[in-house]
Amino acid sequence: MNDDLLLNIHKIDLDMANTNNFDVIIIGGSFAGLSAAMSLGRALRNVLVIDSGLPCNRQTPYSHNFITQDGKTPKQIATLAKEQVSQYKTITFQSGTAINATKDKKRFQVKTEAGDLFHSKKLIVATGLKDIMPGIKGFAECWGISVIHCPYCHGYEVKNEKTGILGNADYGFEFSRLVSNWTKDLTLYTNGKSTLPAERVEKLREHNISIVENEIHSFEHTNGQIQNIVFSDHSKTSITAIYARPLSTQHSEIASQLGCELTEQGRVKVDPFQLTTIDGVFACGDCATSSRDIALAVSSGVIAGGTCNKELIMEEF
Ligand SMILES: Cc1cc2nc3c(=O)[nH]c(=O)nc-3n(C[C@H](O)[C@H](O)[C@H](O)COP(=O)(O)OP(=O)(O)OC[C@H]3O[C@@H](n4cnc5c(N)ncnc54)[C@H](O)[C@@H]3O)c2cc1C
């Protein structure tokens, strides 16, 4: 092999190494991940944001309760956020899914589904949660449109409307009590035998909230706007909105792969500075909290970015 060729190969290796080596890799580039990226970009850090483009609120037509962005579509907010973060030239974006992360003494290695390998000194997990749609036909299509997870996000738009709560036991009671602030035309659907204690049934009755125990078969809807709840006995009832909190799970296994401890609720355990139980790994947004809200995801992202940068400074100085 001649010297020129050797030199060129060496240069390509170095370029590859430089291109694939970052101060920080952020996995998940939605509200939490982009906020962390902005803090780190403003701190002149070399950052890679890997994102698979599936935020949990993507089906909801309009987002609310995030100051300055109230009533915008999730896409509008995300596009503006990415535009602003892109101004910081040390931030690189990579579309795709991170499928594996490992840590040796010095650095993290992240592998994507496409087979790319990236390295960094620190890692931020901002991968959110995945909601598991129950077996009620039509539920998934109505999710985020007329099947609502949170009254603060979407309750104002259906205030005083004929509304249902899907739930049972203490959870069904507490959810009904909360939503009764937004509408008095409320029914609790337990989808099977009620397990509410007698005093709670009585309390609901005092507030004109009835309990329907019929098993639910499906939601009839038009483009995600629920029209009727259809029961297994073929009876149906008309409705404008129904609140439900389906089970959710971590969108990505990356934090668990790295050995990060999870909470009893299955969220990544973090301290007030968004540090996980593994050195150099931070988590922010929905994956690390039980309060799902854009403002909170943004706030925790900013904290994760700042803490991560401080750790880097302490190691360098
Ligand atoms: C239906 C619905 C409606 C909502 N409406 C509102 C509202 O009106 N107002 C409000 O304040 N909040 C609302 N929320 C809550 C809000 O959407 C979340 O709190 C917020 O999206 C959390 O941001 P995040 O960045 O943590 O996660 P997400 O926004 O869910 O983003 C996670 C990102 O990580 C990516 N990702 C996951 N795994 C990987 C991987 N392995 N590799 C690469 N990328 C990965 C995903 O593709 C996604 O882009 C709503 C939630 C739902 C479910």
Word description of this protein:
By secondary structure, the chain is of the alpha/beta class. The chain contains nine helices and 17 strands. The strands form four sheets. Strands 1, 2, 3, 4, 5, 6 and 17 form a seven-stranded mixed beta sheet that branches. A hairpin with a 4-residue loop joins strand 5 and strand 6. The longest helix is centred in the last third of the chain and has 23 residues. It is elongated, with a radius of gyration of 23 Å. The site of flavin-adenine dinucleotide has 41 residues, from helix 2, strand 2, helix 5 and helix 9.
Q: How are the secondary structure elements laid out?
A:
Layout: H1 3-20, E1 21-27, H2 31-42, E2 47-51, H3 74-86, E3 91-95, E4 98-103, E5 108-112, E6 117-125, E7 129-131, H4 139-142, E8 147-148, H5 151-154, E9 163-166, H6 169-179, E10 186-189, H7 198-206, E11 210-212, E12 216-222, E13 225-231, E14 236-238, E15 241-243, E16 248-250, H8 254-257, E17 281-283, H9 294-316
Parallel strand pairs: 1-2, 1-6, 2-3, 6-17, 8-15, 9-10, 9-15, 10-11
Antiparallel strand pairs: 4-5, 5-6, 7-16, 12-13, 13-14
Helix pairs in contact: 2-3, 2-9
Flavin-adenine dinucleotide binds at residues 27-33, 50-57, 60, 63-66, 97-98, 126-128, 131, 143-144, 149, 153-154, 251-252, 254, 285-286, 292-295, 297.
